[in-house]
Specification:
Elements: H1 16-29, H2 34-54, E1 58-68, H3 74-83, E2 89-96, E3 101-111, H4 112-123, E4 128-137
Antiparallel strand pairs: 1-3, 1-4, 2-3
Length: 140
Amino acid sequence: MSQESDLSRIGISLPKNLLDKFDEILEYRGYSSRSEGIRDAIRNYITYYRWMSDVTGERQGVITMVYDHEHRGLLQTLTEIQHEHTDIIQSSLHSHVSHDKCLEIILVRGDAGDIKKIAESLMAQKGVESVKLTTIAIED
């Protein structure tokens, strides 16, 4: 789109529970339509992606991840990703939120580009509901 006023129609498939939660938030926040809520969510995603892209240098931070531990093969994949980056991952904390859902907090330290690759690799896995990366610059 050359301008935000040029509209394109898209179709997406979502699990009912995700759409129901989204609709609840839209109503609570007073959105006039799903489309406006989706546009806002996409704008926030783009802003976050740009912010992550601008992070450079030596960083310390945390990767916070929520995932479905019942998703087939996911635990093995997440473990393999973390084991490939033992030079950056300092520690992790795993918590069982519910029968199906787990929260993992991963402490990282290293080059920002390498840290972002880990976060994006975790984010790309099916069964991972959310990944949030927060870092700070390492000062001498």
